[in-house]
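**Backbone geometry record:**
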Amino acid sequence: GIAVSPANAAAMASALKDAKAAGIPVLTFDSDLLPENKDLRLAYIGTHNYDIGVGLAKLVMGVKPKGGKICLQSGGAAAANHNERLQGVRDTLSGTMSKESPGDRLTGQNGWTEVDGCPLYTNDDFPLALQQEEDILNKYPDLDAFIATGGFGEFIPDGYKNFAEKYKDKIASGAVAIAAADTLAMQMDELKAGLATGNVGQRPSEMGYKSIYALKDIKEGKAPPADPTYTGLDVCNQKNADTCLGK
């Protein structure tokens, strides 16, 4: 069997057509195929990616209830999981429901406006992501919020600390809100140090565990897992950073 997390959903679908023709069971985890290609896999195991975006938006709205200028940062333009997260962010901030991912650009809805040059796409290049974040905050010193649909720059502890220390007072006062997906150990350290507003984390170990055991069950003739099988989220802020994981 195959368990795969598609970085490019359309391209992966082309490859998985051969697997289906050969009778090889396929599961997706973390990132799913596009709706029109979901017949190529038995089930998706992982995060409800739209809800990550909802959680990130709510963290920012808690600091900036009247809206403001915002920049969004994503992994890749073709990554279905990141596009679903963007849709969750935009829908929640705007108070409307868009028809499809990555959602409708914020142009003043509920007071929120995406600045020129955003969204930013990192293509999972962490140093690039950190440079993008620093550049956009330098370009827009009055930026109200920055949301990243992945950990990206926060995955570089020393570099992120050097960058975020310059904004620590603004984060503390609520002048700017910075929220990112994922809750790895270094991100929790950064959050506790006041270098971010909050994080919404996945449970990657559970995704991998359930995916492999599901393939084992299928091999043994048992039924595939429910489609989708969601593995839950952790929403963390500076106040609950010591206790938010695994709830």
Q: What stands out?
A: The chain has a mean pLDDT of 96. The chain has two domains: 2-47+203-232, 49-201. The longest strand covers residues 68-74. DSSP finds eight helices and eleven strands in the chain.
